[in-house]
Amino acid sequence: MGLLSLLWLAPVVGMVVILLAPRRWSRAIALLATLVSLGVALAIGVGFQTQSGGLQFVERAAWIPAFHIEYFLGVDGLSVALVLLTAVISVIGVIASWRIEEESHRSGTEKSYFFLYLLLVAGMLGFFIAQDLILFYVFFELTLLPMYFLIGYWGGPRREYAAIKFFLYTLFGSVFMLVAILALYFLSGPAGARTFAIPELAAKNLPVWVLNWLWLGFYLGFAIKVPIFPFHTWLPDAHVEAPTPISVILAGILLKMGTYGLARINLQVLGDASEGWWRFLAVLGVVNIIYGAFCAMAQLDMKKLVAYSSIGHMGFVLLGIAARTPEGVNGAIFQMVSHGLLSGMLFLIVGVVYVRAHHRFIVYPEDPALLQLYGVDPSKAGQKGFGGLATVMPVYTFLMAVAFFGSLGLPGLSGFVGEFLSLLGAWKTYPLYALVSVIGVVIGAAYFLWTIQRMFLGQPNPGGERLARRSSPRAAGVGSAGAPGGPAWGDAPLGAGPLAGNGLELGGRSGDVDPLGDAVSRREKPRWGRRPVSETSKVWRPFCRS
Amino acid sequence: MVADDGLAWFFKLVILGTALLTCLVSIRSPEVFDAFRGEFFVLVVFAALGMVLMAGAANLLMLYLAMETASLSSYVLAGFLSGQSRSAEASFKYVIYGAVASGVMLFGLSLLFGIGGTLDLAELPAALAGASPLAVVLALLFVLAGLGYKLASVPFHMWSPDVYEGAPLPVTAFLSVASKAGAFALTLRFFDEAFGDRAIALATQWPLLLALISLLTMTIGNLAAIGQRNMKRLLAYSSIAHGGYLLMGVVALANPAVRAEAMAAVGFYFVAYLFMNLGAFYVVQHLAEPERLNSEMIADYAGLLRRSPFLAVALSIFLFSLIGIPPFAGFWAKLYLFEAFVRAGLEAEGIAGGRHLWLVVAALLNTAISLYYYLYVVKTMCFDSAVEDRPVRAHPAFVGLMLVLLIPTFVLGLLWSREELGVPVVQVEASASLSSSVSPTLGTPFRR
What we know:
- The complex is a heterodimer.
- Chain A is mainly alpha-helical.
- Helices cover 64% and strands 3% of the residues of chain A.
- Chain A has a domain of 273 residues.
- The radius of gyration of chain A is 22 Å and the shape is globular.
- In chain A, 59% of the residues are buried.
- The C terminus of chain A is likely disordered.
């Protein structure tokens, strides 16, 4: 058994052990299993030959010979970056889940939580290394089941709605993907010479009209996962309702499954589809950037802000992939990794204030009607929100600032590298779109800085000290996930051609100390009603109010 | 009279396996047990005999007699709880629908006999070659009424939810798998041998007709299932929808090059369906027993995960498999079925080959629709809070039975390919593809 099998089988073995072991051991086993995966991922990362293109660590065996379905694993530059990201984030996720029972008021559920968590991790790792389309699809779908339960059982007040929306949306998209997979198989050659293997499919020359239809099928599957406008509406719901560690996984890795799929299938296999499709993808990338940024600006709920900012940041990935230049594709990959680390950090940061203040409002709504709109008990009106947190929680503020500045693309932090490279690549192909999407960067800076201003600067609100009192060194470790990534990109062999040998080096380091650890005492149940919040009214309300 | 080939052999195994499991669970079923009479088992065996004959029937008369044998026993089985009006209603509806459908079918069969002058399915293509297409289409439509009734396909599906709801649960489970398996074996053979000829397919356009029926069956079955609040009715509609997917396998027969593959795909689907559908029905039956939930309503399943983790997880797995989510058997069954269908469509020459690729998209969209109602049950069991906290204990013997059904649901698709399961059907493939390339008109290589 090779390293790649070990990579995704380690969590599976962990699942079995969790089932057999006493309940209190579950989280330790989960941590161990993800650490083993991380170790294997690091071994793969170290052993990976950055200068050579093509697949490495290949494992290939017949699985269902009648249909040429193979057990075919392998990594190239694209995969290896995301495998490392997944392995890192899944360890962070376990640590952030350490007290999941208390935090979600679900006592005695550790065992099933970590069982499902490891299933999710196995699915994600397998997805990034699968080189056979059926295997690829199986792993893709395998992440749905645990995610459904993790959101639906351990999530917030509207968790069931969010979970089923997530499941339905993704399955709806993957249905078209399955049609495209079958069609690709039958078109790959005469009977007997057909294959599901991605590298061999990429070498085939299919007529453009066929490629175009296949492109659409795969696009629908991945667009919902990314999500690309207008399929994005499940994301804010899922993010807001999911428990913090699952939000981290969702933003950090699950979204990358969509963009990875676009790069792996739509670009590598169907790259010769009509120019129109790529232009279409680029336009939607721009829409994602601008629309996501504007939506994020209008949010009062921090988790929604981060969710919409994710939509915006994924737009840069789309733009980079659509450009099909070495810079663009490398930028897209870098942006995936950078966003995976940064968004995880952002959600952990939000989690810290949420467990202390029991709300996540950037500005606490004074209008009782607005509170009601958010489903908060109107009697809580007049409560003071955050403000001046910088004076009461300096260390936390520093970490937050790193994450925010990384996300808004400050040079020296990893967000800048990804965005800059994507834009640079896009400039060659679509100068106009690159120009327009710069607006998104500006708006991004605006909402992050505005949030800092409203929450962290100024005078502390009365009662703000109680947040500080609960502060402790443990909270200081939210993680320096978005650490400087500047030097890394110079090494990337940009001329190597898309996907062939982008020997990536990860710029981000990841800290992974339990952010929520100390804050669980005296936690009360959040008083959020079940009433759905109307999307439009919430978007425009802040503008009307001031 | 009766064919003894891979198709028959395979479906006989499915039918007899279902009958065996039915007898096993009936021993403990209070519904049957309270009214314990030996004739229950006799009736199950007789019904199984009829279905086994259906699977092998290669003659119009044999086909009809086999269907009647299966039906008559099924009527009595559906009304076995003679004291209950629900059961009596089920039986009554079943009889009325069945009588009308088989009457119409008999008329269709006599038309075929009148046109062709032969009762042998294998001789029909030659006999029908010169006949007026209108007469053949008319006969075919009449026959389809009877087949559609047995397959519970739209528009002859109305009886199925009421019968499934009213009949004792072991009988419902038995009918949903075995009766369907017999009917599908019959339908496959009928269309393959009697109408597999390209000229007849072109003249009668039966692939298009069946494709439309398949579309309506799966869509109506799935949409109607969404509103159900009774677990048995939900599974009844789900069973209708699965019948719709399976009809795609029959449509694929229109392309002679793919016929063996299509049959094998339907066969594999039935193996998967046996495990997952019987599993779901048996969990429902176990929960409906008085010392457990004493209810078949989905609402009463609330919080089942807390009260009986084993039963809740088992039912969830069966339902996920019915949706067709990997890695469960239901996914592979669907994959093979769609694969055969797509291949039939892509490699077809002309419309008669069944280039109805839109049906795959429709079927996959239907899968997404079906997710909603299956997940509703899962959601109720796992997320909703229980009305009472009294634990629900599964009988140890039942746990064993569940494992027998659960393990194949898990590993069926992962470990065995369709070929390895459908060995006899695939033996046909080699000869079928050989002879069909020589003379695609006469489809008898299916015989051993």
